[in-house]
Amino acid sequence: MGALTSAKAAEIGNIVRSLDADTLDVLMKYLYVGMASPEKYNATSLLAWHEEVCAAVSPYPASSGV
Q: Can you give the pTM of this predicted structure?
């Protein structure tokens, strides 16, 4: 979890886009585990990762308004 919370916000999108679907699935599971323990992990950082993963797997472009 330390690697996730120590990544710079500007790097998260590039990292997420380099991952395949199976790895994104595992990453999302780690994010949910981390978000379930906000006293241990930086929720702001984990939410930034969550946002990027959701954008990467969404069938709709962010600008579509869907």
A: 0.84
Which amino acid makes up residue 23? Answer: T
d(CA 10, CA 38) in angstroms, rounded, equals: 22
Print pLDDT tens along the chain (66 aa): 888 888 999 999 999 999 999 999 999 999 999 999 989 998 899 999 999 999 999 877 666 555
Q: Where are the domains of the chain?
A: 2-58
Determine the Cα–Cα distance for residues 53 and 16; give it in Å rounded to an integer. Answer: 6
Q: Cα-flanking dihedrals φ and ψ of residue 39, to 5°?
A: -75, -20
Q: 46: exposed, middle or buried (C-beta count within 10 Å: 0-12, 13-18, 19+)?
A: buried
Output the CA torsion 9→15→17→21 (10° steps). Answer: -120
